[in-house]
Specification:
Mean pLDDT: 96
Shape: globular
Number of helices: 12
Structural class: alpha/beta
Low-confidence stretches: none
CATH architecture of the largest domain: 3-Layer(aba) Sandwich
Helix content: 25-40%
CATH class of the largest domain: Alpha Beta
Distance between the termini: 19 Å
Number of strands: 14
Strand order of the largest sheet: 2-1-3-12-11-4-5-10-8-9
CATH topology of the largest domain: Isopropylmalate Dehydrogenase
Bound molecules: 3-isopropylmalic acid, magnesium ion
Radius of gyration: 20 Å
Length: about 350
């Protein structure tokens, strides 16, 4: 029996609820395929601020490094939202990404054919939408220094720094082109080259890297134009690659193509081994949703689909990943919906029930 160590960090809000359902589905995978998943757990985010005074203990990173993957719930909530607070729940996810060197964030956006009617966009615009957004995750405005606030004679001042090195831009672009080769062979590189120096460098490097992949079609877009095109012609995108903050914003927008953030998994990856696997962090992109926490309303599918990405990308278990995705697909086909994706005629189920339905279909 193959054993795999996994660190789970349920976090805050709906994090623990959706995590429970993902673990339920993974338990079925263990049974069916004869693997053993060895879980370690760590309190992070607001819960860790309450318990330890910090959003993430250094132990969390060492536990993560001793594991094949981190399955991450969500962090944050109104309780820890004071803008003056010195520690924030978000420090946990940012610290984990940075300290594990997880520079490539993969956010697939697929519109399920049976859920075309659940988006606020017209079905005919959405039809065929199947894209992969690759967000640079450890550089840019999130991490650049100086980053600080201060008081001056004329009032409050603040600065964040948008900085990228050639190395950071080159490596994320290679990830995009390589993944595009396994898909529809199109890369849209998104920048703000008409205004920002980082954007100009990004585009220059994107052209150089693109030249190394003659089989892949490349398109360069300004981020504002891309925001518009995502709504106008979403199905025309295959792989989108962009810097950290643009990727953050565009992926929330893209999530709405799929009807709900509750359907959107993600993988954050660092350096890969020759076999293509390597440590990764897997999280739903929806966040902690404190407004619905504890009510059984959360959609666990994004968390379950994140676990599937973990099986594929960190554990190298392709058949198992496909089995999990197939189980989600079958639950949707049979009309089961959590409230966030419920359209007229659907069978509305709560978080647990959706988890049960998926687990029994694995
Ligand atoms: C995301 C989230 C995070 C981010 C927050 C929670 C720090 O919005 O993963 O997209 O901005 O990266
Ligand atoms: Mg975000």
């Amino acid at each position: 029996m193959a054993t795999y160590s996994i660190l789970i960090t349920p976090g805050d809000g709906i994090g623990p609820e959706v995590m429970e359902e993902a673990l339920k589905a993974l338990a079925r995978i263990q049974q069916r395929f004869g693997h053993e998943f060895q879980y370690d757990e760590e309190t992070i985010g607001g819960a860790a601020i309450d318990k330890y005074g910090v959003a993430m203990r250094p132990e969390a990173v060492s536990k993560a490094k001793a594991s094949r993957a981190v399955l991450f719930g969500a962090v944050g909530g109104p309780k820890w939202d004071d803008p003056k607070a010195l520690v924030r729940p978000e420090d946990a996810i940012l610290g984990m990404r940075k300290q594990l060197g997880l520079f490539a964030n993969l956010r697939p956006v697929r519109v399920h054919p049976l859920m075309l009617g659940d988006s606020t966009l017209k079905p005919e615009v959405l039809e065929g939408t199947d894209m992969l957004v690759i967000r640079e995750l450890t550089g840019g405005l999130y991490f650049g220094v100086p980053k600080r606030r201060w008081e001056s004679a004329s009032g409050r001042q603040a600065v964040d720094t948008l900085r990228y090195s050639e190395r950071e831009v080159v490596r994320i672009l290679h990830v995009a082109f390589q993944l595009a080769q396994g898909r529809r062979k199109k890369v849209t590189s998104v920048d703000k080259a008409n205004v920002l120096r980082t954007g100009q460098m990004w585009r220059e490097i994107a052209k150089e890297v693109a030249a190394q992949y003659p089989d892949v079609e490349t398109e360069h877009m300004l981020v504002d134009a891309c925001a518009m095109a995502l709504l106008r012609r979403p199905a025309s995108f295959d792989v989108i690659v962009t810097e950290n903050m643009f990727g953050d914003i565009l992926t929330d927008e893209a999530a709405m193509l799929a009807g709900s953030m509750g359907m959107m998994p993600s993988a954050s990856l660092g350096k890969r081994t020759k076999g293509g696997t390597g440590i990764g962090l897997y999280e739903p992109i929806h966040g902690s949703a404190p407004d619905i926490a504890g009510q059984g309303k959360a959609n666990p599918l994004a968390m379950i689909l994140s676990a599937a990405m973990m099986l594929r990308l960190s554990l190298g278990l392709e058949a198992e990943a496909a089995a999990l995705e197939g189980a989600v697909d079958s639950a949707i086909r049979d009309g089961y919906r959590t409230p966030d994706i419920a359209s007229p005629g659907a069978t509305v189920v709560d978080t647990r029930k959706m988890g049960d339905i998926v687990a029994e279909r694995v």
